[in-house]
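Q: Predict the assembly, please.
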Amino acid sequence: MATTAISTTAHWSDDVFREMKARDIKTVCTIPDGGLTLLLKKIEADKGMRLVTLTTEEEGMGVVAGQWLGGTKAMIAMQSSGVGNCINALGLPTSFRTPCLMLVTMRGQWGEFNPWQNQMGQAVRPTLEAVGVKCFAVDKPDEIGETFAAAADMAFNGKLSAAVLVSQRVIGAKGFGQK
Amino acid sequence: MTKAPEKTTRSQVKDAPKNAGPNQIDRRSFVKDLLQHRGSGLVVTGLGSPTWDLFASGDQPENLYSWGGMGLSVSTALGIALAQPDRRVLALTGDGEMMMGIGSLGVVADQAPGNLGILVLDNERFAETGRQKGLSSGRADLCAIARGFGIAETMLVTEQGKSADLAKFLFTTKGPVFAVAKIAVTEDPWKLPEKDGAAISLRFRQALGLEPR
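A: Predicted assembly structure:
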């Protein structure tokens, strides 16, 4: 499937949702993140889709692989801190050669207020790449949809693991009402 | 994997649990008896001994063997069960693997697939790494944990002769269902299936008519 044109919609989650539907992605596993709120609402409201709420992100590696083994396209959406929970688990889709598509909203990366996010946020890309996950970083809202589409097509056509890293620059730094 | 474990009998395990039943079930023959009743069921293993048990019971494409990803057997089986609602799916794992992925029981309860059964072969040991004591040897009650997460149907089996009853529970009771079989600490010959995960998964998908795409 070809990747799509530049966004004309109001929010990047509309673009990602459209690309998910275009590829018949039916299941989204998640530990929620603030940056994913609008997307997760759309998924939950869609009768043809299933939202799988996890207790920890690595479970998503199992569910996504199992979905593919049973003939359904699935993915995981999570915060950058969750990536750290997935590293060993990523050996499962890699060994089975099943697609593992990840949408990651970044923390600890751009104007972060909470320093406890910084270590994992800075380590997301090097750790994912160390275990062979193709990373697609994006920091412009109107490029997220096409970036997601490109990553999804590589993951499902190539049966590989791919992660879209949505910059904190897009999401905005959370200030807890402080300066 | 280069060195076979030393032979240990039940009587030599000095810290054997007091509250866990007799632990006299022989895992290999029990799994084989159980799986005679699988029908068209799909079986997903947790890494280690359950994988060897499944392979020893008879190889077939509907067996999804795992050699890694500790903690993910139930999650993987859940993904398959949701994608294949007309097929029965069994997650066959050990107590250590189950404990590592214990939260996945909460995800199973939430998704509530009617076609999913989970069986924990519980020897209360990390059998592959030297039989170190596991948490199910003490105060933890796996069936109570499963019920606490919201899996209403659970079964504890402590007798070798209950394999047919357990099979009926795992393969026909509306799921999700969860069972624990207290098995003896035994030394069994290595029975190692295919290690290439891509070959295992491709064969599995072919058996479901999903390949070639």
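The first helix of chain A runs from residue 12 to 22. The domain at 12-131+139-169 of chain A is CATH 3.40.50.970 (Rossmann fold).
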